[in-house]
Amino acid sequence: MMFFLFIGFIIIQRLTELAIARKNEKWMKSQGGLEFGSGHYPAMVMIHSAFILSTIAEVVILDRELSAFWPLLIVLFVLTQLMRVWALLSLGPFWNTKIIVLPGAKVVKKGPYRFIKHPNYVIVALELIVIPLMFNAYWTAAVFTLLNMIILSVRIPEEEKALASLTQYEKEFHDNGRFIPNLLNKYDN
């Protein structure tokens, strides 16, 4: 029962995020925003949908139990959710599941984006490990971590190229790491 409440929360969260993304997409395109990387987007959606289905299948079919490490994993999960909200709120109407860039827009460099270029991808990577491990779904954690690495190897360069071509992205983020904060440069000023 606890598993289905947990996975139900995740499904509702993802559907809510898709609704926010659609609203933001409509606004950005009405302002002249351009979409990039649409070729890989269906694969990304498929991976994220299959992740949820795989988690459910592994837990139910293989009769997985709640992990003995669940207290640590739930803390990590809550932290990822707080970071997710922080990243989403920091980008505001510029947040999206697609790569949509508003030409000439001021680059958002607040919240977690002050420290790293792609906090949302770090959060997703952690979730793809933490969520299945909460219920000992090791196969799902391993397979979807690998699939996520593959899709991000396409998505991140596409996103950075799009941002660099239409904004001051490279200038603003020249000293930020992609996934690991470069704290030394943050406090030199």
* Total domain modules: 1
Strand content: under 5%
The main sheet comes to: 2 strands, antiparallel
CATH class: Mainly Alpha
- What is the 3D form? elongated
Lateral arrangement of strands in the main beta sheet: 1-2
Order of helices and strands: HEHHEHHHH
Q: If helices are DSSP runs of H or I spanning 4 or more residues, what is the number of helices? A: 7
N- to C-terminal separation? 52 Å
Q: Which CATH architecture? A: Up-down Bundle
Indicate the percent of residues in helices.
Answer: 55-70%
Secondary structure tally: strands: 2
Using the coordinates shown, work out and report the CATH topology: Four Helix Bundle (Hemerythrin (Met), subunit A)
Radius of gyration: 18 Å
Give the low-confidence spans. Answer: none
Could you report the average pLDDT, rounded to the nearest whole number? 92
SSE layout and pairings?
Elements: H1 2-30, E1 34-36, H2 41-61, H3 70-91, E2 99-101, H4 119-133, H5 138-166, H6 169-172, H7 183-186
Antiparallel strand pairs: 1-2
Structural features, described:
By secondary structure, this protein is mainly alpha-helical. The chain has a single domain (37-183), classed as Four Helix Bundle (Hemerythrin (Met), subunit A), CATH 1.20.120.1630. 66% of the residues lie in helices and 3% in strands. The chain is built from 7 helices and 2 strands, in the order H-E-H-H-E-H-H-H-H. The protein has helices at 2-30, 41-61, 70-91, 119-133, 138-166, 169-172, 183-186, and strands spanning 34-36, 99-101. The protein has a two-stranded antiparallel sheet. Helix 2 packs antiparallel against helix 5 and helix 3 runs antiparallel to helix 4. The model has no long low-confidence stretch (mean pLDDT 92).
